[in-house]
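Quick one:
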Amino acid sequence: MGTIEKTEPAKLTHLRADWSALRVFYAVAETGSFSEAAAQLGLTQPTVSGRIRDLETRLGVRLFNRSPHRLSLTEAGEKIHDHVVTMERSAEAVERLVADEDKKDEGRVIIAAPDGLATYLLMPELPRFFRESPDISVGIDCGIWTDNQVGAHVDVSLQFDPVSNPDVISTPMAYYHYCLYSSRAYLDLYGTPTSLAAVAERRYLHHVAHTRQPDNWAIKYSAFQGLANIGMATNSSSAIIEAVRHGAGIAALPTVASMFAPELVRLDLPPLARLELRMCVHRDIAGAARIRRVTQWLKEVFDQKTKPWFRAEFVDPAEFAPAKPRIMHPAMAS
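Output:
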């Protein structure tokens, strides 16, 4: 029979961290067979027997009596098995607890989103969400420079960046159609440009993230950016919008701006780009009740049936925005 020898502290620390080895030990002890344990764990028989040998070496004791027909626990193995059974039951209890928590329509959900989207599109809809889901709190991560993709601290991400992680569920949500906007005061003071070349001579407010999805921007826009008189460059959509509102210059904004900032004037020029917005959630948490409730709310915020400005096809803001005349050059009017 084997005896439990004193284990060095370094070895004990390593053992505590190696729960996977103990789970292999548990499976072998329960089945009495390396091959049956391997089938249960989805491993190969040599892998299982190798891990048991490593565990025995680390502990300095023999855990199993080997015979041609069956494995049996040694005295040392029996004592360790009692503790591992307790650990296994605790692990199962934790899994049940987590499963029960996921069924509750409560808790905290972290949403990553560009700052302009969060400010002008999500915040006005937040009171309704709280009325419908009073037990859910939200955190809004507007980490402007980062990609804000789903990770350790983010539950749901609204992003324009492509997704390559197969463990992330990526759902198309909306399309941003970018056009040129300015304020009435700026156009009255400096005149209304009727071409990109004329816009390049005015003060342009540039968002540095407009390099995203380059294939979706008009070819002329790339050339325009090289010629534009950039009065301000920023990574903040909110800063761009407020600068335009206060008459600082001209900027490319999504046409939804005609809804939340109807005082802005869209120049009578073709759209510059169509960017796809996607909602990303990790598969491991997508089924949790609080996550489902938040993703449903976000789908309502970007509902293309009731909000035509988010559709794939371009819809002129004149068809949906609050009544406001659009600036048109006199020579173009007839």
